[in-house]
Fold this sequence. Notes:
Largest sheet: 6 strands, mixed
Number of domains: 4
Strand order of the largest sheet: 6-8-9-10-7-11
Mean pLDDT: 76
Low-confidence stretches: 1-19, 154-160, 545-555, 635-663
Distance between the termini: 49 Å
Amino acid sequence: MTTPEKEKTGLSKLMPGGKKPMTPESRRRFITIALVIFILGILIIPSLFSNKHIKTIDYSTLLRDARHSGVISANINNANGVITGQLTNGTDYTTNGPIPVLTTEVETLRTNNVSVVFVNSNGFLATFAPYLIWIIIFGGFMFFANRQAKGQMNGMMSVGKSKAKQFNKDLPSTTFADVAGYLGVKQEISEVVEFLKFPERYKAIGALIPKGILLVGPPGTGKTMLARAVAGEAGVPFFSVSGSDFMEMFVGVGASRVRDLFATARKAAPAIIFVDEIDSIGRKRGAGVGGGHDEREQTLNQMLSEMDGFDPTVGIVVMAATNRPDVLDPALLRPGRFDRQIVVPLPDLDERLPILQVHSKDKPLDGSVDLSMVARGTPGMSGADLANLVNESALHAVRRDSTTINMQDFESARDRVLMGAQRDSMVLQDDERERIAFHESGHALLAYVLEKTDPLHKITIIPRGMALGVTMTLPEEDRHIMGRNHLEDSLCMRMGGRVAELLVYGDLSTGAADDLQRNTELARRMVTEWGMSKEIGPMAWGGHQQVFLGDGLMSTKDYSEHTAEIVDDEVERILREQEARAIEVLTLHRRGLEALTRSLLEHETIDGDTAAKLIDEAHGEPVWPGGTKTVSALSGVGTTSVVTEAKEVTPAPNWNPPTLPSV
Length: 663
């Protein structure tokens, strides 16, 4: 199986300190326990503040005991008539007397040697003073529980507020100097920054700055990082928000947040608004299965109105990023809204080197590391892929107990990124290993012998990722278009594994499933999209439509059943021609196929130079007299020269374009 071409479970957020936020169920449980403790405290407090037994007696009994010298003291409360004191037997008592206490009865107590004291009570405070500590504790519980509830619910009254974060010129600290490559992109964006800083320079000549800038590119190319660099360079208020921040379960909330965002930006104008992943709210209206989405469409309508509606916004530049420009509403892309679309493509060879240098500047690189070789060996990788490659190489260096990163670490990291992690736990039977070795040797031999294939880099029968074996090729340079001969050689090379099994074992296995699927897709595109079939001619059908957009969900095919049969016949013809071609080449180089297989069974992994040497020795003379059509490890060992003439390769069937009619 050949190497495919290059193109998170969510965990709940943790609070500071690593603790999880309190859920509504746990909050209710917490409040219930606090209430139980509070009530028990109220019931227990009287016994805590009473060290002696207090006897309750009648007022008449108190006067009778006083006449018989049975009372020592009487503390009379003028406010509530409560009388407390001590009897001669040492017992404390309490009783309720009249309000106010009669003077004659007080004289009776005093004449009988009772110590009478009048107490002025403070009412409520004196009554509830013992319970004050429990009230404070319960109030503290409720205060912290309420704060946590507000933090999680964000307040029902603020549901329509914008969630945009405002940055100043000091935060974030990312600048254009931190974004490697993309000089043209940075120049276009820097014009907006300069206009906001020095608007008089542009107004003097009558130039109008674009109201909206749309960054378009594959994932991982640095669109959001460019926006952060704008925030660091602008020197004006910068509002950053994600497209998903506008969406809620309540209809109208998104539109309200758009209004609030632009209202806040107007107060701070001149300002920049950055909307990340704008395709989440900017998709075509009324499209998709089952109609439109009310909340999304209302949010989009409000954004259209704010950008260039009846009352257009002045002094605000809107930046947005997306990797799906094809799904955006046309009204959003017209001049006056997003006037300028800036493509942020995958970095080419000249841009990959500075990107690698930026990500490697704080890492201890060995003196043998040549980042230019790493850049050359990573075509099709995005900036995020290159950052991951550097990090994986550092992890590999730690695993081998090294304090520096060398080329071996970069090589292993690239294998992991491109082909997947090595599956050491998988145990293959001997007959399986042999069949896989022949399969990969078939791919490798055709990759080396055919003229237009990419140079051979590595062959391995060690299971990686989802593959049991991998044949890896690397292009000499970035390629933007491919000719028909290149496509046919690619088809023939992918047939190598299936054909090798057929030649050696006389039967087939399931190992060629991915090769056949990719070959069929490529051959169909050659026929239906690229006009590479003389039976179909210069016509194209079957452009890629996304069902959820609704653009052709109910539409019929734009070609007849007869044409569909011709397409199927042409796809079959192309694939059978390349299969026959692969059989012819592998039969011619059968000894080389067996030599590669023996080496793979012994070493499990061989590089391109070793494979080329084995094939040449088995053939009796060099297949490419002017050099080896291989590219070895990132260390630069080996050459990568392509000779335009191959001695034994049978050329593809001749195909001449149809004669154009004379004018």
